[in-house]
Amino acid sequence: MRGAKLLAANEIVDPTEQTDASLRQKFIQVVIPVATVVLILAAIGGIGWHSYRTTREGVLKLTHELLQSVQRYVVQDVTGYIGAATLGGSFAQDFIGHAPAAVAERAFYAYGASMLRLVPQIQSYYLADQNGNFLLVERDPNGKGLEYTQLKTDGKQAVFHHDFYDESGKLLRSDENPTGGYDPRTRPWYENTIQKKGFAWTPPTIYANTKMLVVTGAVPLVGTDGVQRVFAINVSLNQLSQFLDGLKISQNGTAIILDKNGRIIAGHDFEKVVVRAHGDPTKMTLDPTAQGTFRRIYDIYRVRGPGSHPFKYEGNNYIGMAQTLPTSDDWALLIVAPENDFASFARQSGRESLQFSVIIVVLAVVLAGLLGRQGQRAERLTRQLAFERAQTSTQTVALQQVALTPDILDAKDEALTLTEELARVSHARRVSLWRLLHDGTALICEDSYDAKEEAHSGGFELSRKDMEDFFKLVDAGAPVTVASAAGDPRTAAYERMVMRDNSTTSLTVHPIRGTSQGHSDIVGAITMEDAPFAQHVSYFLEIVASIASIRFSGMAELPAAESAVPTGNDAVSGQVLPPPRIDEALMQAPKVGGEIGEGLFPSVAVMVITFSDPVMENGDDASGLLSLIDKIATEVQDIAVRYSLFSVKVAGHRLICVAGCTKEPDPTAIWRLAEAALVLRETCMTLLSTANIEPIFSIGMDFGPAMGGDLGKEPKTFNLWGETVTLAELMAQGAPDVGTIEVTERVYQALREHYLFHSRGSFYAPRSGIGRVYVLATRR
């Protein structure tokens, strides 16, 4: 090279080489000072932290004891508040029950008027009997007197007769109005009390005259005339809430009362709760945003039971107390107070100690920070570059995998690669592909991949009327990532219905756009749960969305004949199927014409219905069930004929239904059996409900090859055996609830395009290994 000067070998220097002297100098100048500062900070911080922890533990111990005393005081006061209903009901049960029939009405009015004058939380009293007679005494909503009401029958017309009295007991006026068909025997407070045969609480209701919330407690009694009566007391919830708000628990401590279903009975900011629920008592539940601390202590209470439970919420420490109220219908009293209300002085003392300690070493910390800042920045940049290179390489491999997948754009083939690769590059727990129906009323899950379980599912449906805010989010057409899906009103319904079973938190929603009539429309969405790298895969996500859009357009173009579900007799039109057989254990069957042969049948659909012993409401013996069993047997025979089932057999408490016992594969067998299962479930539910018997059956289904044939001498008995029969029976035995239809993955794969399913996870079967289980819900 012209003009260049060649260097001698001894002048060449390796810039990466470091001498021992330079390393030793860096150790003395940097490592030792930084280590010394760190040791000083650790020692000072340890001393301060130990002092703070010791003080805090002592304060919290004292606080717990104090709150336990407060809790006992509050429980006692609240019990006394509602005791006017429970004790008053017991007194009235004895007082009115022993009164002569001629004076029962006057005894009721006298007792009710006295209690209303003495007990402010009581709103009114009812007395009804088995003949439909009804008495009411309540405060006059327009004055300070009392109103007596009696249901009277004047000829053929029933009216309410009202008498209004002032404070001194003087009759002011009387009035009458139609009853509107009112019958006290059909009211919840009457029916629940008669069924329970003891004191019973009913859920909160709006009291018609005062428009205030009340809760009703009722007790049954039998008068001297032998007539069954129910005495009821209405307790004002608004006054109970004012009572709880008036309790001084701590500077910021509050209390609330929930019933056994988690609905708010009374408590802090009760008026806001009523407004939020639009006056509907069934919607008066805890708001996760405004009442998050009560939601947390209620969840802890349901898991751990009553007691003191410290917890942390949104970075703050709280002390929660939970207690079941006596003499109530499993009501729970919850008390929440910030820990700062009791331990603030300990925290302040520890903070001041730490501040004095920090002042001593602040300059040394600044120096150490400056020394390490440069190295940290270089290391951070190196890590960022390495991460981007790894992410690029991962997405490249994923794109290659998608490109190599055959028929990836064919709507008839499953696109499992799309969800799997997207879950891999984004590190998501679960990725789901949703298709929006053409009318926009529902989202259908084409495929959902769970990376932890390494399993695919699909066929689920989300309805717009159940989660309008989530559909609006999809319709907006903009990608959205929500850190906490449960806390965002747009995704709260999706979290409750889809994510909660997997305990996932964050959610990314990416719209899928399609082209219709020259303009862009939203045709679906991709959802990713707990995807930490979601923001780094936007390019790959757009590619997957484009492929899904093409697939969805192909689905829209499929002829209607391909998506129709054959059911009933339509499912077997044009096919020659063997005639139905009904086992002799259920009904003597006619001689079956033709011989189907014996051996392996390739596509047998098997349904097993298991029945448990019924429990009759009236305690009658089993002979009363014969007519019910006969009705069920008759319905099963009709259903078998209607859907061309091949065999129906009774074995103990099991009923085995079979379709598809043909030498050639019968693609309609599983459809016909699924339709029969849905009809049979509805029929059994109706018949058992009519007989006042709880559902006592569960259904299992499988689809696959099986061995079968006629056995024994004439009359021969058809028998079927194999893994398909075994798995169907296991599905029936493992059903989560009575009356449900549990199926194997083979049934799900065969029917997922035309029926809706719920995934139940995995199961293990001997000789078959691990498989997926689903619950058949209904038709699409």
TrEMBL record:
It is a multi-pass membrane protein. Keywords: Cell membrane, Membrane, Transmembrane, Transmembrane helix. It is found in: Cell membrane. It comes from Acetobacter conturbans. The chain crosses the membrane at residues 30-52. This is GAF domain-containing protein. Gene3D superfamilies: Nucleotide cyclase (3.30.70.1230), PAS domain (3.30.450.20). The keyword rRNA-binding does not apply. CDD domains: PDC2_MCP_like (cd12912). It holds the Pfam family dCache_1. InterPro entries: A/G_cyclase (IPR001054), dCache_1 (IPR033479), GAF (IPR003018), Nucleotide_cyclase (IPR029787), Sensor-like_sf (IPR029151). Residues 608-732 form the Guanylate cyclase domain. It comes from the Bacteria.
